[in-house]
Amino acid sequence: MLSTPWSDLDPMALSRLGCRTVTEAFETRGEVEWRRAEADALAEALAQPDLGVLSLGGGAPTAARAAAAIRASQASGNAMVALLHPGEEELVRRLGQGRGDRPRLARDDAAEVAAMSRERLPLYRSLADLSVDTRRPAAACAARLACFIRQGRWAWPSRPASG
Questions:
Q1: Structural domains of the chain, with CATH
Q2: 43-60, pLDDT tens digit by residue?
């Protein structure tokens, strides 16, 4: 929709560690090394002039160095952050369908997912220039984001994911 490159931070961090999956990175290198690789990859990506869209995993901004890199890029006008959040109930439902490559989730436990969401959401909101409720169909969410970007409406203040 935006005719711009899209990248995912996980493969960038994985290549730094020589791992194939996030679970493998956690098991062989540990979470501290994973977060360090994520923060390094994020800083490198944010320094690229034509980055386009960069997707971050949920734990990426929880590292202080990564959050600082995001804030610095925002302050310099080089990055805008969209929080894509489905609300706690939907997040629990989605993650309950299988933990996939999510090593921080020891089990597919709704209470664990909800607690992690409540813990992280204030940070996510503090970093967001815009929040989008992703309980809507993916195409509608993408169209909404594209509209905001094209209209230059990214200067809106952060607000909770709701509409």
A1: 6-154 (3.40.50.300)
A2: 999 998 888 889 998 889
Q: Using CA atoms in the order 54, 5, 103, 135, what is the torsion angle rounded to 10 degrees?
A: 80
Where do the H-state alpha helices sit in the chain? Answer: 9-17, 22-46, 64-75, 88-96, 110-127, 138-150
CA distance 159 to 7: 25
Output the CA torsion 71→124→56→86 (10° steps). Answer: -150
Query: Could you tell me if residue 18 is left (phi over 0), alpha (psi between -120 and 50 degrees) or otherwise beta?
Result: left
- State the pLDDT confidence band at 89, using cuts at 50, 70 and 90: confident
- DSSP conformation class of 59: T
Tokens of 40: 């390094």
Q: Cβ of 85: how many Cβ atoms within 10 Å?
A: 22
As a whole number of angstroms, the distance between CA 110 and CA 95 comes to 8
d(CA 83, CA 66): 15
Residue type, 1: M
CA–CA dist 129, 16 (Å, integer): 29
| Six-digit token string for 36 | 């360090």
